[in-house]
Specification:
14 helices, four-stranded antiparallel sheet, single chain, globular, 359 residues, eight-stranded mixed sheet, 36% helix
Length: 359
């Protein structure tokens, strides 16, 4: 999965152009549509949450994980600019992105350049290729960090283990398929996994052929994000939106041209993702003495933060029936489509009141 997504020459994100990867709704270009591509409402609501959290904080960094072609980044920065001008408060003094694709980095720079001049001290959009680079280069105690990501963690490589009739868990591997009647060059094969890993997997409630998923990189990523926030001198926060893991089920999926395809078809040419273990994130952040939000559906989070009122304002400002139909369709997908599938969570340092948007 890591090779398919991030190989320097043949990886999905490193070799594809933004327009090939990210599209709007079905029928438009691109392989899939994320919430920011569907409607500006999504990024504006996240921008409101970020502003409300950090508006009184000095020396803070706005950091997005996996910004894609920069649509969400642009919506968030535009919202921060407007709120700062109308209401007051302090904007970020640095804007940082974690992005591995050179092509996508360029797209992000073009969008961010429209807003950088509006924030005192921000001279350029800064980039790190990985979270490893971010934590290696930055001293988190020098700055207050606001880190957010939409559909970033679901791209971390996943290991799968399947329960056999014997009661044993076998790890799913990828093998060569040289049969003449197979449309694929690869196949899944079940082999014994590392005994020390298998022994720690949760099999409670599983039945034959159920799947347990493990994301090997998640402990490092969760610990790193938690330390960035907990080490912020005054206040820090992380906000994550993604689709969750399902105990007993495989969440590995491949998307091409807005349709699900076999995960082993066209390696490097399809998007691969898997569900995120949000309970593990909550546990890790809690151990780092952060205030952790309840796990909340995207629909509830957006509605709690006033997405319907913002939608009505946009409808009043719209200039055509086509524009109004687009707004309505985008709102429906954010709330009733992805809104029922995606989970939102936050963790904060420096705030003891209830977390905005989480009930």
């Amino acid at each position: 999965m890591r090779l398919c997504l991030s190989h320097p020459l043949h990886g999905y994100y490193t070799s594809s152009t933004p327009s090939h990867i990210f599209g709007g709704d079905q029928g438009e270009q691109g392989d899939f549509a994320t919430s920011p591509e569907i409607s500006q409402l999504f990024g504006e609501i996240l921008g409101i949450w970020i502003y409300s959290t950090m508006k009184d904080v000095d020396r803070w960094v706005l950091c997005e994980l996996g910004p894609g072609k920069g649509t969400l980044l642009g919506d968030v920065m535009r919202t921060l600019k407007k709120l700062k001008e109308k209401v007051g408060g302090k904007g970020p003094q640095r804007v940082v992105c974690v992005e591995t694709s050179p092509t996508l980095k360029h797209a992000q720079e073009q969008i961010a350049s429209k807003y950088l001049d509006h924030f005192k001290g921000v001279e350029k959009l800064e980039h790190y290729a990985t979270i490893d680079e971010l934590v290696a280069e930055e001293s988190p105690s020098d700055w207050n960090w606001l880190i957010y990501g939409n559909e970033f963690l679901d791209a971390l490589p996943v290991d799968q283990y399947q329960l056999q009739a014997s009661g044993k868990l076998l790890q799913t591997h990828v093998a060569i398929d040289d049969s003449h009647d197979s449309p694929l060059h690869f196949k899944f094969a079940s082999l014994p996994g590392d005994p020390s890993v298998v022994a720690d997997l949760d099999t409670i409630g599983l039945k034959e052929l159920d799947v347990v998923e493990l994301t090997p990189d998640l402990p490092f990523v969760a610990d790193s994000l938690g330390r960035m926030i907990s080490s912020s001198p005054d206040k820090g926060a992380v906000l994550l939106v993604d689709y969750p893991i399902k105990h007993g089920s495989s969440t590995l999926r491949a998307i091409r041209a807005h349709h699900k395809v076999h995960p082993l078809s066209l390696p490097g040419q399809t998007d691969l993702s898997s569900g995120v273990n949000f309970p593990y994130l909550c546990e890790t952040f809690s151990k780092q003495s952060l205030q952790v939000s309840p796990l909340t559906l995207q629909k509830s989070f957006l509605m709690n933060l006033g997405i319907l009122a913002r939608y009505q304002n946009l409808v009043r400002e719209s200039k055509s029936e086509e524009e109004r139909k687009g707004l309505a369709k985008g709102l429906w997908r954010l709330l009733e489509g992805m809104g029922e599938q995606y989970t939102v969570m936050a963790a904060l340092k420096g705030q003891k009141t209830s977390l905005l948007g989480f009930g």
